[in-house]
Amino acid sequence: MTSSNHDTDRRDFLQQSVFGTAAAGLAIASTSHVTAQTVSDAAEPEVANDVDVLVVGGGTAGHVAAIQAGRAGAKTLIVERNSQLGGTTTTGGVSFPGLFDAWGKQVIAGIGWELVKESVELDGGELPNFTRVPQRHWQNQVYTNQFLYAILAEEKCAQAGVEIAFYEFPQTVTKTEPGWQVDCVGFGTNRRVRCKQIIDCTGGAEVVGMLGFPRLREEERQPGSFLFMLGKEHQPGKSQNQRLHQLYVHGADSTNSRTATEANLTGRKSILARVRREKKKLMHLQPETGFRESYRIEGETLITVNDYTSGRVFDDAISYAFYPVDLHTRTGVRPKPLKPGKVPTIPLRALIPRGSRNIIVAGRCVSSDRLANSGLRVQASCMGMGQAAGVAATLAAKAGTTPLEVPLTEIHALLREHGQIVPGTA
């Protein structure tokens, strides 16, 4: 069969299939065309990058860290093992991030807020009024179109000069004189990255673990959530009454590909059983389980729950956080709200693995005890950490030093320049 005949037969088959199932609601309304740019040396499996900053993990903290590093002038590469940026907000489906406000004012802004705000505005949605103190904390979470958010994040990376490598992950990390050599693997791709600084935004501090630095983890972890919708169409970002259904996956563990696979299979099997049992249509299903808890680093300092609930302002605070202590268990969750006026802060030292150089983390793997982490792990706080890590790594790369040795005044100044709200400063 010639290529021309094959294409014609395939098109006829698609049309017949669509027309035959139109009554069931399946139709291809239109087809448009775009052309991807040619990838240089696409046939070659070996790729090399020389960059200032390597961000590992493009989730809640990682994409913000990369955009910040790029905007601050660092040559930046971000590697992400999945197919899109955004992590919990997009792939995990928790497309109502928070909390950006506390007690009637905004406390977290910067790049993460820029993305959230633009995705809501582009979708025709509404932003909460932060001058009002809600009765329940979740009432000021921002309902966001997860699909718009993901592609806006890619656009901002491109505008900042950040290179993105999807479907790849580090296999080995080796110390070098100027920084690191990181060998990453994807299907059909072996990538060698030489960088001055690493920002580990993997959620479970996986690069930190590969390097042998100590990490903390509980024997029993909080359940993951698999998000879906039965019986009615889900309209992302449009309505606060359209929140997705949540399935707790107890024992969900993101330690490695095998444990993550088991969590996903368990969640999907349960949802399929529910569809059959309730005889409702499955209208929406996220691609994977959202994980709440895994490894945390043992940092140069550890944020305790008392630090968190008292609103301690650390000497080296680089960002605010705000959320109830929010530990999920088999019997559910009973958030413990912070007392009026209390706003926790995050110190730079909690992002630095103890005894390390030229590596910083951001996100839920921040050095903290379990109860403090249950509040710190939410999206707005992780975005703030990501931006701070992006600044610290960039300044360290430029100065030929390590993030902890960068003057705090320089970190604060660059954060303010890029729209972040810095604790304890005007």
Give a verbal description of the structure.
- The protein has helices at about 5-20, 60-70, 110-120, 145-160, 205-210, 255-280, 305-310, 370-375, 380-400, 410-415, and strands spanning about 45-55, 75-80, 100, 105, 165, 170-175, 180-185, 190-200, 215, 225-230, 245-250, 280-285, 295, 315-320, 330, 330-335, 345, 360.
- It is α/β, with parallel strands linked by helices and about 425 residues long.
- It folds into two domains: about 45-220 and about 295-415, FAD/NAD(P)-binding domain; about 225-285, no CATH class.
- The strands form six sheets. Strands 1, 2, 5, 6, 7, 8 and 18 form a seven-stranded mixed beta sheet that branches. A three-stranded antiparallel beta sheet has the order 11-10-12, with helices on one face.
- Strand 1 (about 45-55), helix 2 and strand 2 form a beta-alpha-beta unit.
- Per CATH, the architecture of the largest domain is 3-Layer(bba) Sandwich
Number of continuous helical runs? 10
CA-atom Rg in angstroms: 22 Å
CATH superfamily of the largest domain: FAD/NAD(P)-binding domain
Poorly predicted runs? 16-24
Provide mean pLDDT, rounded.
90
Order of helices and strands: HEHEEEHHEEEEHEEEHEEHEEEEEHHH
CA-based shape: globular
CATH topology of the largest domain: FAD/NAD(P)-binding domain
| Ends apart, CA distance between termini | 72 Å
Number of strands: 18
CATH class of the largest domain: Alpha Beta
Category by helix and strand content: alpha/beta
What's the story with the biggest beta sheet?
Answer: 7 strands, mixed
Helix content: 25-40%
Instruction: Give the total of domains.
Output: 2
